[in-house]
Amino acid sequence: QVQLQESGPGLVKPSETLSLTCTVSGGSISSYYWSWIRQPPGKGLEWIGYIYYTGSTNYNPSLKSRVTISIDTSKNQFSLKLSSVTAADTAVYYCARAPPYGAYLLDYWGQGTLVTVSS
Amino acid sequence: EIVLTQSPGTLSLSPGERATLSCRASQSVSSSYLAWYQQKPGQAPRLLIYGASRRATGIPDRFSGSGSGTDFTLTISRLEPEDFAVYYCQQYGSPPNTFGQGTKLEIK
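ok -> structure tokens follow
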């Protein structure tokens, strides 16, 4: 059974860079797409972007200028960096897997981690 | 981008009843690339339905999806206590993939 676990700081100052890592266990990171999704408190879901195991990426246009997703297949990890954060970036951040036949179809999710942007 | 509008916002039903949730897209969803997720408080979403009508692995057959084009429906035939949650639809045929705002299914 594939498991995903997000890790990283729970508090980030405004204008700084949010950095999170997702560790995949119980399966290989190869042959899948790996996404980041966020959910502001009490609100809906927003897809941030994905990385394919080969390293190719696709980002939500609304966040593209601030987002970088990278992957380390040797560690079975992928990471998110979101720059120049503001209070509007406060959210629960989820990592998730998508199968080869559906890059945006999210079949396994991490439990999520709350990131608060505040000074 | 495709905007998904879910209705109703909140649905109040009793266990054993039938639930019908709607998801309407602002333009046609390519190849019925429409999914449904269930989210319980404090938990990550769980994939229920993909391809508009295909159940994900391990999902009970009381959950069914239907629809095409711009109108999609999630039906729960007989509600169990564990089914009360928030449900989101997602279109994944036209980048960027987008989610509906959610329908909260609450116990009456």
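The CA atoms of residues 88 and 102 of chain B lie 5 Å apart.
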